[in-house]
Write a structure and sequence with these properties.
The complex is a heterodimer of chains A (about 575) and B (about 80).
Chain A (H helix, E strand, L loop, with lengths): L3 H5 L10 E9 L4 H13 L2 E7 L5 H6 L4 H5 L3 E5 L2 H10 L8 H19 L3 E5 L20 H18 L3 E4 L1 H8 L1 H4 L2 H7 L8 H15 L6 E4 L10 H4 L12 H16 L3 E7 L2 H10 L12 E5 L3 H12 L6 E4 L3 H10 L15 H8 L14 H15 L5 H7 L2 E3 L1 E2 L6 H10 L12 H9 L3 E10 L2 E13 L4 E9 L8 H15 L4 E5 L12 H4 L3 E3 L2 E5 L10 E3 L1
Parallel strand pairs in A: 1-2, 1-3, 3-4, 4-5, 6-7, 6-9, 7-8, 10-18, 14-15
Antiparallel strand pairs in A: 11-12, 12-13, 13-14, 15-17, 16-17
Chain B lengths: L2 H16 L20 H15 L5 H6 L3 H9 L2
The chains are: A alpha/beta (about 575), B mainly alpha (about 80).
């Protein structure tokens, strides 16, 4: 990671063309360097962050005054950094009989801050949790003494997680974990604190800024979706082709424990929705043997969405994996123990994240923990089913090759779609897809759960969520439309995005038939579409044109009364 | 290390952090003589100097220097 001095040089670079986002930063200690670090780190994440910094120690004044500069600035993100040191100060000054109420009182204050922010802004809140200070007053006995500072501090960190779990737009930035990883002497430096009232050391600033940007980026749709794994000396010790299945190191053999624990970590990622792919220089049958037969393998073939084992170069194989999965290279992580392979892939596909795995496999996990590669802004049960969906997609590809006529193939799939407005059941998935969809997304407006709730309760919007199932399985909710009433004659397509899993099935035509018929029934005469280009959505550049909309300046217009239903092979469920 | 050598190395650190190529420090240079050398930048410089020379200053030392010469003396005494 860059040092603060190196990071600061970003501030002089040209930010034009980068995505512009407004952030407010409020803290109870000196935050100038933190603000510089966040803006500079933003450059490396592709953002031009316009940051408004509250004056020193003004969190409450800014938040509870609805006419404050904070609200005038109207940020999209509010970062709040209340320090453990100031918390300790409050504890020190409180009466002994109030010591045991510290966490509850503080949590009430934070809840009030969150409520006030929500009633004045449509912003996401990023709240820094509390790195531990043990004042040592009770020794180890602090752990069983409710009125000790340590007890109250840990309680507050825990209660904050409970609170955050219930709030859609309140995100915790876990700087306490940073302190656990790098040590207190690295996160905090007394001379810096005494001289400037900064509670972060100069060296910690880039890490804290990165963690903040990880959260912001994941809310904005920048996160990892797939891990591509090498096999020999990455998933197991040794070379399967040379050593044979009895001698590769796994489980209790040699350094096997390190690889087994590494595999458990990968398995957890898969269970939370990260797609796994294999890319190995091996003969395929030899490479698959441990997955099928080795008793200590944690990962099995059904965990792997795409398995590429051959003697071609890895960059080509990874391009092939990308074509099957149809996700961006920048959402992929490639793990390989061999620096030569890493460099070849890095040179050919610079967008992929390729960690410099340590030489000693025993260090893999601890190193990967510190990178925070797998930030996410949401989690739903469907995430864990993702690998199955991609494997089913591979079966469809095989079937498609048997048909020469596209229509016959689509007919044979027996496709059904359930069309519903947003409900409390589909809201999490709608919000999640809104954050994930980059390619098939006409306007790339990102909505959280709470935004979606607001929209579905508004009379000004009509909402549609589409599922798609066929004889191979259910893709779940894959397409979302939000129509905004522009006048009593016009409906504006505020949102149209679709999962790339269901491209080329005629879903676009089915969706258009559905919304045109809806518009007709409600007495509207035209649909207005708009395409806002991003780095990723060129795929839908001609979307409205292809569907028969007429160009009108920046917009696309469709006369619903002249519309004839398009041919498609999807039936309403 | 000779004080002149320390001064040379301190100068290089100032140039890097203040992003000021033409900056020339002498023993009598003070914060008032150097653009952008405010209290926050001061701590950034101090931490960089600590790292460069592999030393640690006390909090009082950091607040106590009245010019570059005293800072260099302090480094030399470590």
């Amino acid at each position: 990671m860059k040092t603060f001095s190196q990071l600061k040089k970003n501030l002089k670079l040209d930010y034009t063309g980068l995505e512009h986002i407004r952030i407010a930063v409020l803290g109870d200690t000196a935050t100038q360097f933190l603000v510089q670090s966040i803006r500079a780190m933003g450059y490396d994440y592709g953002y031009n962050l316009e940051i408004w910094e509250a004056d020193f120690n003004q969190v409450e004044r800014q938040v509870f005054d609805s006419g404050s500069e904070l609200y005038e600035f109207n940020p999209t993100y509010v970062v709040i950094f209340q320090s453990t040191h100031k918390l300790l100060g409050k504890y020190n000054k409180s009466k002994s009989e109030e010591n045991a109420q510290l966490a509850d009182n503080e949590l009430t204050l934070i809840e009030n801050i969150s409520t006030a922010l929500n009633s004045n802004l449509q912003a996401k809140i990023i709240y820094y949790n509390y790195p531990e200070i043990n004042d040592g007053v009770y020794g180890n006995y602090a752990n069983k003494t409710e009125s000790s500072f340590l007890f109250q501090l840990r309680k507050l960190n825990y209660e904050l997680m409970v609170f955050a779990a219930k709030q859609h737009n309140f995100f915790l930035c876990d700087i306490s974990t940073l302190q656990n990883q790098s040590g207190k002497s690295n996160l905090f430096q007394t001379s810096v604190y005494i001289n400037t009232d900064m509670v972060l050391s100069i060296d910690a600033l880039p890490s804290v800024a990165k963690l903040t940007l990880d959260i912001l980026g994941s809310i904005d749709g920048k996160f990892k979706k797939c891990v591509i794994l090498d096999l020999d000396n990455t998933l197991w010790g040794g070379v399967i082709g040379d050593d044979g299945i009895e001698n590769i190191q796994l489980g209790s053999l040699g350094i096997g424990k390190a690889f087994t624990e590494f595999q458990y970590w990968i398995k957890k990622l898969k269970n939370r929705g990260i797609i796994l792919a294999v890319c190995s220089k091996n003969t395929e049958s030899v490479a698959k043997e441990p997955f099928e037969k080795h008793p200590d393998m944690v990962l099995h073939l059904e965990d792997i969405a795409v398995f590429m084992a051959n003697w071609e170069n890895k960059a080509d194989n990874i391009r092939q994996i990308q074509r099957v999965l149809n996700i961006g290279f920048d959402s992929m992580v490639f793990l390989d123990d061999n620096p030569f392979e890493r460099n070849i892939v890095r040179e050919n596909i610079p967008e992929i994240t390729i960690p410099e795995l340590p030489k000693d496999p025993a260090d893999y996990l601890e190193y990967l923990y510190t990178l925070n590669l797998f930030e996410t802004a949401s989690f739903s049960n469907e995430d864990s089913e993702r690998t199955k969906l991609y494997q089913v997609e591979a079966q469809r590809t095989v079937l498609q090759q048997k048909f020469t006529n596209e229509g016959d193939f689509l007919q044979s799939l027996n496709m059904l779609s359930l069309v519903e407005p947003f409900t409390k059941f589909n809201t999490p998935r709608v919000a999640q897809l809104s954050q994930r969809s980059n390619q098939f997304n006409l306007r790339t407006a990102r909505y959280t759960d709470s935004d979606i709730e607001l929209i579905s309760n508004s009379d000004n919007y009509y909402t549609f969520a589409f599922t798609l199932e066929d004889k191979f399985g259910n893709n779940g909710l894959i397409c979302v439309i939000i129509l905004e009433v522009e006048s009593d004659k016009k409906l504006f397509v505020d949102t149209w995005f679709m999962s790339c899993r269901v491209l080329k099935r005629g879903m676009e035509e089915f969706v258009l038939n559905t919304i045109v018929n809806f518009a007709k029934e409600k007495g509207f005469s035209s649909l207005i579409g708009e395409y806002l280009p991003t780095a990723k959505n060129e795929m839908v550049k001609n979307h409205y044109k292809n569907l028969g909309f007429k160009e009108a300046g920046e917009e696309w217009v469709l006369d619903v009364n002249e519309y004839e239903n398009k041919k498609c092979y999807i039936n309403k469920k | 290390m000779e004080k002149s050598e320390i001064l040379k190395q301190v100068n290089a650190i100032f140039v890097d952090i203040l992003d000021n190529e033409g900056l020339v420090l002498t023993e009598v240079t003070t914060a008032n003589d150097v653009e952008d050398w405010d209290s926050l930048t001061h701590i950034h410089l101090v931490v960089a100097i600590e790292k460069h020379f592999g030393i640690r200053f006390t909090s009082q030392e950091i607040q106590g220097w009245s010019n570059i010469g005293e800072m260099v003396d302090c480094i030399a005494s470590k």
